[in-house]
Design brief:
about 200 residues; about 20% helix; two-stranded antiparallel sheet; alpha+beta; nine-stranded antiparallel beta sheet; disordered N terminus; 3 helices; 11 strands; single chain
């Protein structure tokens, strides 16, 4: 159940690219720190969750997909973008995501969706976390021509025994995590018309 139109994707992806790309464009002018600090506020205005943790900018571009099995939502994917403006490598681990809920249901991170969830996701984008180590390393990227690195994180809802689960479209997603020492909560919402927005909490 891939419910993302090309138009919606381009709109949200473009907004996030503008926000994160601004850091790279101005870093060569010595304004990188200032722009990185303003990214969260710019993200708020654009409806894209964004944060800056000591020079590491990360954001959601609201690109997401979901798949159903036997009428019940079984897998959810979002795109997480990072631009490392520091002078050292930073690591993001799947274990750094402390909790994530979809329509109030707890979820678990799926490192290998086709193997673990038995759902074909080919063409849905690069996996963020390594299937074996559950981690991702971001190199320093002060080059103004380099864009933010974006990749997919997959979540599987955990339903109580006998629960009907999510049988229609999802409406809310919340993820609490720690990245480069900063505790962050991103919230993503989908309205009745299908528009997806996200924000910091």
């Amino acid at each position: 159940m891939k419910n993302v139109t090309r138009r919606a994707f381009l709109k949200t992806a473009g907004a996030a690219a503008l926000a994160v790309g601004a850091v790279g464009m101005l870093s060569g002018c010595g304004l990188g720190d200032f722009v990185a600090g303003s990214i969260p506020t710019l993200g708020d205005k654009l409806g894209c969750a964004a944060e800056n943790a000591n020079g590491v900018v990360y954001t959601l571009n609201n690109d997401c997909q979901w798949w159903a099995v036997d009428g019940k939502l079984a897998l959810f994917r979002l795109t997480f973008l990072v631009k490392n403006m520091t002078d050292h490598e930073v690591v993001f681990n799947a274990s750094d995501i402390k909790s994530a809920t979809l329509n109030g249901y707890p979820t678990r991170i799926v490192l290998d969706p086709e193997h673990d969830a038995r759902i074909c996701v080919k063409g849905a984008g690069e996996l963020l976390f390594d299937k074996t180590t559950g981690s991702r390393t971001y190199r320093p990227s002060n080059n103004m021509s380099e864009v933010a690195v974006g990749a997919s994180i997959y979540f599987e809802p955990i339903y109580p025994e006998g629960d009907a689960g999510i049988t229609g479209d999802w409406s809310s997603f919340e993820m609490k995590f720690t990245f480069t020492g900063k505790e962050t909560t991103f919230v993503m919402n989908r309205d009745a018309g299908g528009k997806v927005t996200s924000s910091r909490k």
